[in-house]
Design goal:
Helices cover about 50% and strands about 10% of the residues. It has helices spanning about 15-25, 45, 70-75, 85-100, 105-110, 125-145, 160-175, 180-190, 190-200, 210-215; strands spanning about 5, 30-35, 55-60, 65, 115-120, 220-225. Strand 3 and strand 4 (about 65) form a beta hairpin.
Length: about 230
């Protein structure tokens, strides 16, 4: 049975990026179905295919798998390479994925996903500074302990997929992640990440609340999106 992965706008949908990149990077074939945001709240429309009214959603035969973590776990049961082979690296990746999925609220709230712009921020408040420091620590630990170039060793894993939206945020807002920048540069150069970025830049739809969040965060210094 073939997979269909339902995602939303490339410029904004950080949760969509996770399973999309994971499947692309591991050469897991799927139909790429985009259900774009058409208004600030798309719950009712998305309920037609998603029990939560949100994306991403994986369709596999008559089975619906929702939530980016649920999709990753589902794929891990069926495909090699989702988790690292090394036991210590796998434990690290599992903890990192869980931490990303449930944490970093200040980063999510203050540094909205917006692939196509660059923003000059003012001083970070305590909550955001704490999140950025933890991300830096996690990236540096993974690279040092497992040798890179990916977060949990020489092979791409779900840990990289889950932090991929953070890589875009780091670039957009110029966040300092120390030696972890080596991973950021590496994943931004991945062909699938470039493909996602090209699609994001080509989108001409703008969601007002996301754009307002950008202005509240800092000064937009560059906008590479289709105008």
């Amino acid at each position: 049975m073939a997979y269909t992965l339902i995602t939303a706008n490339r410029n904004y949908s950080s949760w969509s990026l996770r399973p999309w990149l994971l499947m692309k990077a591991l050469d897991i074939a799927f139909e790429d179905r985009i259900e774009p945001f058409t208004k600030p709240v798309n719950y009712d429309e998305f309920r037609a295919f998603s029990p939560t009214g949100q994306v991403p959603v994986l369709i596999h035969g008559n089975r619906t798998v929702w939530d980016s973590l649920g999709i990753a776990l589902y794929l891990a049961d069926r495909h090699f390479g989702v988790w690292p082979k090394n036991e210590a690296a796998c434990a690290f990746a599992q903890c990192a994925v869980a931490e990303m999925h449930g944490g970093f609220s200040a980063l999510r709230n203050q540094c909205t996903m917006n692939v196509g712009v660059r923003v000059a921020m003012g001083p970070l408040d305590a909550a955001l500074a704490k999140d950025v420091a933890r991300i830096r620590e996690l990236f540096e630990q993974g690279l040092e302990q497992f040798g890179g170039p990916w977060l949990a060793g020489p092979a791409f894993s779900v840990a990289d997929a889950f932090f991929a939206p953070v890589a875009f945020r780091i670039r957009t807002f110029g966040l300092d992640v120390g030696k972890g920048q080596a991973w950021v540069d590496h994943i931004l150069a991945h062909p699938a990440m470039r493909e996602w970025e090209e699609a994001a830049l080509a989108e001409d739809w703008r969601e007002q609340s996301h754009e307002e969040e950008l202005v509240a965060t800092g000064q937009i210094t560059a906008d590479y999106r289709q105008q």
